[in-house]
Structures are given as structure tokens and as C-alpha cells.
Amino acid sequence: MECMAAHHRCEGRGREHAEATRHLRSAWHLDHFQRDLSGAGLSVGTAELDRYAAETALDVLAAERRIVFAMHNTHLRRTPVEHEGAFGLFPAGYHLAEALGDDYVAIAATSIGGRAVEGALTPDGLETREVPLPPLEPDCIETAFTGDAPLTIAALGPEFGAYRKVRTEGDFMAAPIFRAFNAIACVPTTTT
Q1: Structure confidence by residue, pLDDT tens digits, 36-82
Q2: Are 111 and 126 in contact (CB under 8 A)?
Q3: How many CB atoms lie within 10 A of CB 183?
């Protein structure tokens, strides 16, 4: 596909060829991701998914003035995900922040309580289920939000450095909150 790009551009099919190449590249990334989930591939977690998501967002941004890139907080964060694996887990937000600098604004979405959808690997694939959110932990960013406003958004500054966790599905994710996100949007309750 890559070596035929010039030929297709000369034939007036450059745009169509570029789109087909993007689709093929997405299948390649998805194949790596699925192989990892099944235990048959390189153990790179969501690195393939995140890299492709960032590439796609940057492709769209090349034609648009701005975009809203909506993904799970883990994938939006600007910093690598801490884990014990052999490979680094660099979320889409990390790649976007590298490419866009301060033009990439990561806004985490969270809630004080309620319910969430959580994914679990089974022999048949990825299963989703509804789970109640656990009580707040002392060092989670959600404890910074008080009151019953329907939505609160906080721009993050150094004073938020003491918070070390944010909700992720039905649990909390450790993260350097001040560096990982530019802002937090919090609602009192989420439902599925």
C-alpha cells in the first residue's frame, strides 16, 4: 500500500488511497491489540490502540481547526501510565501532548458516586458489566469537589499536586493529577 501511494496520486486517486492506507493501518494496530489481549502477541497493553487513536486525531486535526477527542481518562492523560510491564504504556494523550504541546488540553471526567461500566477479559472476549463506584479514597481528586452543583470544572494548578488518583471505570487510577490533566470535570453521580 505504501509503495503504491505515488502511483495512485498520479492517477488522481491519492485521497482514496490515503484513506485505504489509514484503514489498513488501523487493522494492523487492532490486530496487535487483539493479539496482546489474547496472550498471543507482544505484551504492550493498550499502546497500539493509543498510538493509532492519536495518529487518527492528528490526521483529522490536519484538516480541521480543532477537535474534541473523547476517550477514557486513562487514554486522555498527558503522562505515561505507571505499570510493572516490560514496555512503556504511552496513552493517546501523551502522543497528542508531544505533537501539540500546550494546544492539547486534557480534561478528565469523573463523579463523586454512582455506577460505571467496566470491561473484563473472558475466554470469549471483552465483557462489559455495570458496577457501583467505590467510596472516595483520601488522595483521589474527587475529594476536592464538594457541594451538589450539577457540573464542576476545575482548572488544575500546583495546589492539586497532593491528589494522586482519579476514577477509572469502577476503581481509581494512580496518576500525577497536576501533570496528567489540564482540568477535571466532575458531576455528583454517574449512571450507565
Answers
A1: 777 776 666 678 788 888 988 998 898 888 899 898 899 999 999 88
A2: no
A3: 14
